């Protein structure tokens, strides 16, 4: 299978080749011909499957030459929107198409300037787009392709009323593409209302974390969580690690504690300014900082390359967040480790995760760690080797 027989324009094929995409991923092979044909599409796929290129490449092929705003891509978070913009810029490199990125946390002027250029593709988060729509800085009545990306996340984050208001302003004669890791029943209503006889393709169910991620649970008494986190970091031969915390305050506390122990750390969560978040991601991506502490916003589809380890400082209450979190590692068939610190009150959440992924996660006891007693430690094997990085 190659990119040349999917119905893409020469420019689009060229841009994929320039990025050294040798062959389409399964979602690209299935979605691209459908999108090129003009049919509405529901793509149920995990992030990391090449989903962005699956919709951007055919959109670029269809738009061809610069005119006016004809494509709107809605994203739940600023980081995702920025990432999709980067992908659009890569794929429009050989065209005269213009893109614009609209999200909150930054000034309006730069965005208004971009909008005056009548961008062909607008990538936006719902709130800021509505602000621009109210100011009449952008119009959606000539939208030919509408993309609702990470739709289940937009639903979880309470964006559905905003999304509906936005769709109401889009041209009714359009193609609508919806991508979502899961299709919860509440999305069905939106699908029925906003889409025309969509075709559904499903690639890699959400409940199957990448096969290449090795998972382990580390039971410990509540009072020893910090100590265990430090021990895990010390004994883990990581290249780069994301530590997830359920709360923003928790993320800050972990960040400070690690810094005090001499680790180079950045923290990202939604109370940090856009500038601070962007800088943190840049330092982490560039390898200047090896440890990133994050709340779940960072797990929502961020494509950070080469994360060797994910450590969950706490067990996520929502089992799908677990799959999102550990999906940061083991991407594109590379190996990765996901370590989860686990205390007795979190037993129910662990059961829910194991039910979702349909397999037990091994309980592991760290060798030579001075454990205080917790009932969870019964029947847990000591296996410090697990934390060591496997060779690629
Ligand atoms: P996504 O699921 O869109 O977040 O993409 C995950 C990663 O896969 C990104 O780093 C893409 O650049 C990369 N990627 C997408 N399509 C291909 C392909 N056909 N071949 C190789 N890498 C790809």
Layout of helices and strands:
Layout: H1 10-18, H2 26-37, E1 41-45, H3 51-63, E2 71-74, H4 78-91, E3 99-102, H5 108-116, E4 121-124, H6 126-134, E5 145-148, H7 151-156, H8 160-169, E6 175-180, H9 185-194, E7 199-203, E8 213-219, H10 225-235, E9 241-244, H11 248-260, E10 265-268, H12 274-285, E11 291-294, E12 309-312, H13 319-326, E13 336-342, H14 347-357, E14 364-365, E15 381-382
Parallel strand pairs: 1-6, 1-7, 2-4, 2-5, 3-4, 5-6, 8-13, 9-11, 9-12, 10-11, 12-13, 14-15
This protein binds adenosine monophosphate.
Task: Write out the distinct hetero groups bound to the structure.
Answer: adenosine monophosphate
Instruction: Give the CATH topology of the largest domain.
Output: Rossmann fold
Which segments are poorly predicted (pLDDT under 50) over 5 or more consecutive residues?
Answer: 384-392
Q: Determine the fraction of residues in helical runs and give it as a percent range.
A: 25-40%
Report the CATH superfamily of the largest domain: P-loop containing nucleotide triphosphate hydrolases
Compressed to H and E, one letter per element, the order equals HHEHEHEHEHEHHEHEEHEHEHEEHEHEE
Q: In whole angstroms, how far apart are the ends?
A: 27 Å
The coarse silhouette is: globular
Q: How would a textbook summarize the main sheet? A: 7 strands, parallel
Architecture (CATH level 2) name of the largest domain: 3-Layer(aba) Sandwich
**How many domains?**
2
Number of helices: 14
In which order are the strands of the major sheet placed? 3-4-2-5-6-1-7
Radius of gyration: 22 Å
Number of strands: 15
